[in-house]
Amino acid sequence: MTLLDIKDLSAFYGKTQALFDCSFAVEEGEFVALLGSNGAGKTTLLRAISGLLPFKGSIFYAGRSLEWIAAQKRLGLGIAQIPQGRGTFSEFTVDENLQLGATIISSRSQIRQDKERWYETFPRLRERRDQLAGNLSGGEQQMLAVARALMSRPKLLMCDEPSLGLAPSITQEILAIFKTLHRDHGMTLLVVEQNVDITLQYADKAFVIEAGQIVAGGAASDLINNEDIKKSYLGVA
Known about the structure:
Elements: E1 2-13, E2 16-27, E3 31-35, H1 42-50, E4 55-61, E5 64-65, H2 71-77, E6 79-82, H3 94-100, H4 108-121, H5 123-127, H6 138-150, E7 156-160, H7 168-185, E8 188-193, H8 196-202, E9 205-210, E10 213-219, H9 220-223, H10 227-233
Parallel strand pairs: 3-8, 3-9, 6-7, 7-8
Antiparallel strand pairs: 1-2, 1-4, 4-5, 9-10
């Protein structure tokens, strides 16, 4: 089943056009990477899906048009985004951050169950549950950002540059967690990344965006071996 279907999507910052007729689809349960150089339009695309930017064209989620649906209501439909730079609440504890991620969940027992589930997935967060988020390492803050987003029980989890500022070993760990969410919890993932080789090791398929346009796409296993695409669009020698 197609969970996210984007056709001829153009997005704007004021009068400046940043995306040009982008079309692609994400199937339910897929791990999809959106690759491209800095400034290519990756973040803009996620912002349009989340309802933070005006757009032309169409975005369908689970067969429903998102054109007139506000950003907060999109969260209620099951679309969650982890922003670039993580965006954790530094003056709140780990546990309080998770609680804030569950604002759309009314059942207290469900919130308790979900906290326990994600503490099991991220044991380092359990160890630090009473620490302020601002005192965590960069990798731990990224784990917290993921767990907080999961507290809303999304069907589609979008993450913008999870490797930003992290060592390659920590990036591997974060992407492995995404793969576990995808494999064991059936999570549909759309991950924006510049770290091409590592990301393609974990994704099912990928799309390449350049100057606001989708210029290539396919199975991750094919793209990781396509030297022409990597050199031309991804800056990989």
